[in-house]
TrEMBL record:
Pfam families: ABC_tran. Belongs to the ABC transporter superfamily. GO terms for biological process: L-amino acid transport. Residues 1-228 form the ABC transporter domain. It comes from the Bacteria. InterPro entries: AAA+_ATPase (IPR003593), ABC_transporter-like_ATP-bd (IPR003439), ABC_transptr_urea_ATP-bd_UrtE (IPR017780), BCAA_Transport_ATP-bd_LivF (IPR052156), P-loop_NTPase (IPR027417). One of its GO terms (molecular function) is ATP hydrolysis activity. SMART domains: AAA. Keywords: Amino-acid transport, ATP-binding, Nucleotide-binding, Transport. The keyword Iron does not apply. This is Urea ABC transporter ATP-binding subunit UrtE.
Length: 228
């Protein structure tokens, strides 16, 4: 992103955002509620259009590309709240990933069940009947179905019990290491972010105010920008 400004109507939300994420990194986007983190992710996938600035992906300018083309280029978005389709089966929710990729297919790759073995036991179950943690795993698996180059996750640990949070952390690390997929996570759980990511960005009032390696994510920074 270079000098990106995004708003809703006449109200700007992001101001001159410039940041780079390198291929294969895991990065975390931190900040209090309402500072623009979700809007930033939505801008990357094309759900919010900028009024200024540009976005490039894999060396190509995608600033004006529609969302479906960004998905087919390899950007997967797992939104806050998961947004699985509750009355579809787990299997059919997974198959939605084929639609995002633009490729036809009916066979779920075996690696999906390697990363998320729980799903193989619930393929015929309605997605809405899964627990919150299971739904989050389904949402990540659905994103993985389109064989992305980067996954954008908006608060993947929200409302999930600690044991499942640990599973999600471990699985995202495996996906990154074994498939080389870049991961960008909006997160509120600081320890999760510290253990998962190599790099962080902190947002305040629609701007990036701090950035660095997670080793540089000091308690002073956390108190200054994240304490309520």
């Amino acid at each position: 992103m270079r000098d990106l400004t995004v708003g809703y109507g006449q109200t700007p939300v992001l101001f001159d955002i410039s940041l780079a994420v390198n291929r294969g990194e895991i990065v975390c986007l931190l900040g209090r509620n309402g500072v623009g983190k979700t809007t930033l992710l939505r801008s990357i996938i094309g759900l919010n259009q900028p009024t200024k600035g540009s976005i490039s992906f894999g060396g190509q300018d995608i600033t004006k590309a529609p969302t479906y083309k960004r998905a087919r280029q390899g950007i997967a978005y797992i939104p806050q709240g998961r947004e699985i389709i509750p009355y579809l089966s787990v299997l059919d929710n997974l198959k939605m990933g084929f639609a995002a990729s633009g490729k036809k297919g009916n066979r779920i790759p075996s690696e999906i069940f390697d990363f998320f073995p729980m799903l193989s036991d619930h393929l015929s179950r309605q997605g809405g009947l899964l627990s919150g943690g299971q739904q989050q795993q389904l949402a990540i698996a659905r994103g993985l179905m389109c064989n992305p180059q980067i996954m954008l996750l908006d608060e993947p640990t929200e409302g999930i019990q600690p044991s499942i949070v640990q599973e999600i952390e471990d699985t995202l690390k495996r996906i990154n290491e074994e498939k080389g997929i870049t991961v960008m996570v909006v997160e509120q759980k600081i320890e999760f972010a510290r253990k998962l990511a190599q790099k962080f960005f902190i947002m305040e009032k629609g701007a990036i105010v701090e950035r660095g390696s997670t080793e540089q994510l000091t308690n002073d920074l956390l108190h200054r920008y994240l304490a309520v």
